Amino acid sequence: MGNMHGDFIWYELLTPDPASAATFYGAVLGWTSRDAGGPTPGYGLFSTAEIAVAGFMAMPPGAAGAGMPPQWLGYVAVEDVDASVRSVLEAGGTQHMPPIDLAGIGRFALLADPQGAPFYVMRGATEDESSSFAPEKTGHCRWNELSTDDQPAALAFYGRVFGWEKGNAMPMGDLGEYRFISHRGVTLGAVMTTPPGGPRPGWRFYFGVADIDRAAEAIRSGGGAVQFGPDEVPGGLFIVVGTDPQGAPFAVVGPRNA
């Protein structure tokens, strides 16, 4: 059975220095990296010992000058890319890249929600099921977190476009609620309000690690920055929120073994 409409199926890093990024994430997450080959020259793959879970590529020429920062982007499966683009636009979103086809890969488009957070929609060329998002697996994405300046509007938008549902919420003081989102009975992550003076609306992805303290040290020693953590979250796991050496936001989640 392939992925269903609304599933997260892939993650992609846009970076000014792909070679350095490959070294950094290899040290932090244990990923190996290789060129994807095929119809995407210059596109790299991050893999666990078993499977490719994410991609990485150089930022397009002129992107930094146009205001695009280094960043991780998520791909969401859809039944029909063109219909989903129309749905996004009708719901107040924007299109950054129109639908295109890659032979053997699939059809996809780069969009943004009404608050400006970018994401891809994609229909794969095969019915193979992606495990890039796997909440229980080390090396895979385990949590998808949206920071936005209008939480109610964002929740309504993603509910309309992808069928995501609101779950329970945790209070965050002046920032309101940390609202969980679910799809087909699986908790995907959460939506939170961006703090005053914080970054632009966007997604942050939490990748699983086997030892949170080792991951935090690898972030620091590899030239990244730890902004928060290690801090315990429900379930007995710990998180670290930070940036890689090129400034792309990301996070890790896993146990404390010390």
UniProtKB/TrEMBL annotation:
Q: Which domain of life does this protein belong to?
A: Bacteria
A matching Pfam family:
Glyoxalase_6
Per UniProt, residues of the VOC domain are 7-124, 137-255
Q: What is this protein called?
A: VOC domain-containing protein
Organism equals Muricoccus roseus
